[in-house]
Design goal:
Blueprint lengths: L1 E2 L2 E6 L2 E7 L9 E8 L6 E3 L2 E10 L5 E4 L5 H5 L7
Antiparallel strand pairs: 1-2, 2-3, 3-4, 4-6, 5-6, 6-7
Length: 84
């Protein structure tokens, strides 16, 4: 699914988005951001659910830029297959 030139895929409690980097030092580059649903009262709202960022990856080589929560290996291994 594309939303404003951002690729989005939902897998269980995870939502994966690919789009322009949020980091100033990575201007013009793309990142893959993996969000995880949260029951907390804070976090980004998507489709009436709250999400927190679990991991941010470089979209070229899928190397972690930032990582806060554990993401299952099967999701990480399928990113390329899903078009990220």
């Amino acid at each position: 699914m594309l939303i404003n030139q951002i690729l989005v895929k939902k897998i269980g409690p995870f939502m994966i988005r690919k789009g322009p980097s949020i980091f100033v030092s990575r201007k013009g580059l793309q990142d893959v951001v993996i969000h995880k649903e949260t029951v907390e009262n804070w976090g980004a709202m998507y489709d009436d659910k709250r999400y927190t960022i679990a991991m941010i990856l470089d979209s070229d080589d899928f190397q972690p830029i930032r990582s806060w929560l554990q993401v299952p290996n099967d999701i990480l291994e399928k990113l390329k297959e899903w078009g990220f």
